[in-house]
Write a structure and sequence with these properties.
8 strands, 31% helix
Amino acid sequence: MNTTAPARPFSPKIDRNYPPPKLKLPPGACDTHFHFIGPQKQFPLKPNHVFSHLEFEDTPIEDWLKMQDALGLSRGLHVQSMMYENNYEIVLHGQCRFPDRLRAVVVPWSNITDCELEILTRSGVVGYRITHRLEHAIDQRMVARTHEHGWSMHYLVKADEQDDWKGPILKTPGRFVLEHMGGVDPSKGIDGAGFKFVLQCLDTGRCWVKLSPRISRQDTFPFSDTDPLVHKLVEHTPTRLLWGSDWPHPQYFKPMPNDTALLDMMLDWVPDESTRKLIFVDNPAEIFGFAPAPAGAQSGKN
């Protein structure tokens, strides 16, 4: 009798061929949403993690550097993958390798010590990731503890569905971030309740929102159902928008898009060059504490 468990399917693998992008990014351009995965022999994923029905290829720091260099990015906010849950070892490793180039967001466990929080803060961790996939309710004690260390709160939510999270999010002490445009359903448009909540968060003056096509209900390019939402956000509050690739896109895109093509979406989403500089350079520098871009640096022309 064969008792070997059936092999799990692999998540779609990333495209490591990057044609030159049409969009020429300014110096100091930042990708504010990506994940390191592995090498899993060194940094194993949490057993029975939220996507454990799939196998994942290693996409370590070396792969990320190739992607950054190809797209013209020079900074990044490493968002700890839910597949690592509360294990911050890979985050600390990345911060120690690139303390100036990287900032990070982690998912601390409930009994993390103040000393550990201090170590993470000194290494360049700037945020606490709060996701409905790992927590049924917002841990207000951890919000308060990390806020004391100057961290921002980073919410992965579905704003059309999680009404019970809306009040606590609006009452967040200090700065907070909505990942993937608040997870709204683009079919509900700019008048949908979820998107109105995203605008309400921006109106607090303490919220930043990450632009991302991951909320699209389309399987392939052009992900045009996101266009009205992005255009409204750019019109509403361009000084508190961020851009995130979501590299290496674990399981969400089928087929897997090329990261150059994802970057070039910004030419249509944000045609104005000065506004793009806000989103890629100035806004992430303000909230995540990156050094100013080199004096006299000019943004690229298209």
